[in-house]
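Researcher: Structure for this, please.
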Amino acid sequence: MPSTPFALLIGFWMVSRNCVCWLAAASACTEAGGGAPDPAQPGAAFRVSLPALDHFPSDIWSSLLTRHARHPAARHLAYGDPMGDMEFRETIAEYLGMARAVRCDASQIMIVAGSQHGLQIAARALLNDGDAVWMEEPGYPGAHRAFAIAGARAVPVPVDADGLDVEAGMARAPQARAAYITPSHQYPLGMTLSASRRMQLLNWAARHDGWIIEDDYDSEYRYAGHPIAAVQGLSAEDRVIYAGTFSKVLFPALRVGYLVIPKSLVAGFSAARDAIDLFPATLFQRALSDFVREGHFARHVRRMRMLYMERRALLIAALRERMGGKLEIVSAEAGMHLVALLPRGADDGAISRKAAAAGLSVQPLSLCCLEKPKRPGLILGYGGTDARQIEAGVRRLAALL
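Model: Predicted structure, C-alpha cell format:
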C-alpha cells in the first residue's frame, strides 16, 4: 500500500467521492415491500436535515478536489491554523457579508466540523460549570447536548409567533451567561425572530454581559421574501457568536461549518479549538473556497430552493388531503422540514417508533423539549425525500394515525 502524502490525499478523495455517490443513490431508493429501511439511513422518507443528495453536482466537486489533491503544496500537508485556512475564511467572510449582512473579517472566522462541532467549541470557550443558558423551547436537541456536556444549566424559554420570548427569559434567568437562538428559521417550529425581539435580546446581552449564540443552520432556503438578515449584523456591542454550516446545504458527510467570533473572544476560542482537535482538515476547505468563488454554490442553492419549494408544497398538499383533520401544519415558509402538530394527548414518541417500523424517519416534537410539550407533534423532513417517497410516506403515516 503506498504511503506518500499524495497517495493518501487521493485515497481520501476517492473515499469522499464514493461516500457522496453512495448517499445520493441511497436517498433515491424507496422500499416496495419487504423489510423496512433503518430510519437512520438516508433512504428513509422524511429524514430531517437531509438535503437532496442526488442533485448535488458531484462531477464539479470531484474536479475541484482533484485540482487541490493532485499537486498539494507542502504547507497544505503540514499542521494548520486552529482557525482554518485563511483563503477559505476570506471567502466565507465575503459571502456572509453579502448574503447574510454579517459584519466580520477573516480573522474572526473559525472553520469547524459542522455546526454541532461549532456549538461544542463555543460551549467550552464561553461557559463554566453551572452557567445558565437560555434555550428555545422547543429547540434543537443537539444544542441541549452540547451545553450539557460543558456543564451548563439549560433554561427553557418559550417561543411564540415572534420567536424567543425575551421577557420570559429575563424573568427566568436574567443573569444567564448566554442565549442560544435560531432566529432566521426557529428549530423546529419555523418562525422568524421579530425585529423588536432581536433588539430586546441584544439589549439584554449588553446590559447583563451575556452572549448570544446564533445558529443560522439553513437560512439559504427561504420561500417567501428575501433571506432574513443575521442578528450578528445588528450587534453594536459585538455580543453575538454566529454559527453556520455547509453540511446541511451540500451534503452531511462534508462536515464543514464555521463560527464568526467577536474579536474579544478569538484568542479564547482558538485555544479551545487547539485543545480539542488542533485544526480543521485542509483539502475540503480549499475545494469549497473554489466551489463558492466560482459560483457553483450560489447556483446549487438556487436550484435546490426551487426543488424544496416543490417538495414542500407536495408534502403539505398530501398531508391535508389524507390527514387534514388530524394534523395542524406549523409555519413552513423556510428550510427543509415542517412540523405537523398532533391532537392533544397523542404520544408522538410512540408514533415515531411505529413510523420507524414502517420505514419512515419521523422525529417526535417532544424530543426537542426540555419541559413537557403543550402539544405533541411530528417533524417531517422533505429536503431528501422525493415526490414518490412523499406520496408513499404520507400514505403509511395516515395508516398509522
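Researcher: Any notable elements?
Model: DSSP finds twelve helices and twelve strands in the chain. Confidence is low (pLDDT under 50) at residues 1-40.
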